[in-house]
Amino acid sequence: MDSQRRYSIAAIGADGIGPEVISAGIAVLRTLADALGGFELEFEEYDWSSETYKKTGQYIPDGGLDELRKHDAIFFGAVGAPDVPDHVSLWGLRLAICQTFQQYANVRPTRILLGTQSPLRSCGPRDLDWVIVRENSEGEYAGQGGRSHRGQAWEVATEVAVFTRHGIARLMRFGFEIARQRPRKLLTVVTKSNAQRNGMVLWDEVAADVAKDFPDVKVDKMLVDAMTARMVLDPSSLDTIVATNLHADILSDLAAALAGSIGIAPTSNLDPTRRNPSMFEPIHGSAFDITGKGIANPVATFWTAAEMLAWLGEEAAAAELMICVESVCEAGIVTADLGGTATTAEVTEAVMAEIRRRH
Ligand code: ATP
Ligand code: MG
Predict the structure, then answer these.
(1) Any idea where the Isopropylmalate dehydrogenase-like domain is (predicted)?
(2) pLDDT score of 2
């Protein structure tokens, strides 16, 4: 008689405002599952953080990654502490998970939620609706390179960007799949192939190859420098955007700012083969300046939760959650980063009340 769909979620709040927004996200997800029925969510919380790293020398305890593998998805807060170097915390927790689970596609939807505003004059909610697909495993962040002659005037450092046909093709294919599912079927491939003659040219070649399998998707090529201007000057001309690890990292911060606030944007680290769990997180960091004040915007985490539900196959619940989040924003119940006065708890309560009111 048990036709209930069950999902097991690993929750890692980690540092700064991470635990605050993740517990808000869990509360909202539980309310949603109760109200809608048909599926159940079980959460297992892991208290891995920079605090545990400082005590034990490890972000992830022995066997921790195998433990994570048992879950259907990972719901992640933020990692980073003022007294731990960023590259240590990032590689110690977040990137260890991304790499172990082959989460090679990082997906960042960006749009202007109802009730929020873009800093761009005359940019309404329908004028900016993008999905940025970031290569999440190689490129400029492959960790290849080194330094010689340390401290000398003639010191040399190299940071080698690594691109493979396999790595580009699997990402490109995934980008095309996303573009195909969206109404406009428009994909913009971003590179810097006028100045970089190897990796970026390979990107262009692989894009052209993969495009042959997606004749229904319109492909458009941009150099990353010109792309930044186009995002600001002509946002409605873009839809799905595929870019390298570094380029997309930069473009997606620009995108989040153009959409209103870093406090609303979600990101998904996906293993499109579904052999491993994927990880879902707000794009903002640990934000120690507002930690413990109860004013962190939980909307990015709610949107993240919706992305996670959609990936698990609960598209209707995901859409429902976004309707509730947007109606709360429209009612003006928003945190200070969006110009409001509401606390994290007030926004969370309002979203839960809206879910219950509609069901
Ligand atoms: P990290 O080093 O982990 O990236 P950070 O301290 O650099 O963290 P971010 O989270 O990247 O900070 O964000 C920069 C600023 O944006 C923060 O200092 C904070 O004031 C604001 N901010 C970030 N997230 C939120 C949020 N959810 N709600 C409100 N303001 C936020
Ligand atoms: Mg930061």
Answers:
(1) 8-351
(2) 55
- Dump pLDDT digits (tens) for 74-126: 999 999 999 999 989 998 999 999 999 999 999 999 999 998 889 998 888 78
300: Cβ below 6 Å to ligand 1?
A: yes
- Ligand 1 pocket residue status of 285, Cβ below 6 Å: yes
Q: Ligand 1, closest atom to CA 21? A: 27
- What global pTM score does this model have? 0.94
Distance from residue 316's CA to the centre of ligand 2 (Å): 33
Which residue type sits at 107?
Answer: V
Going by pLDDT thresholds of 50, 70 and 90, the confidence category of residue 195 is: confident
Neighbours of 197 (CB within 10 A): 9
Q: Ligand 1 atom closest to Cα of 297?
A: 28
- Which ligand does the CA of 16 lie closest to? 1
Which of ligand 1's atoms lies nearest the C-alpha of 298? 27
Determine the Cα–Cα distance for residues 177 and 315; give it in Å rounded to an integer: 17
- Calculate how far, in angstroms, residue 247's C-alpha sits from the geometric centre of ligand 1: 21
Q: Could you tell me which residues come within 8 angstroms of residue 160 by beta carbon, excluding any fewer than 6 positions away?
A: 142, 144, 145
Flag whether pLDDT at 1 surpasses 50: no
Cβ atoms of 254 and 119 within 8 Å: the answer is: no
CA–CA distance, 247 with 223 (Å, rounded to integer)? 10
Confidence band for 261, pLDDT divided at 50, 70 and 90: confident
Dihedral sign, Cα of residue 191, residue 166, residue 106, residue 61: negative
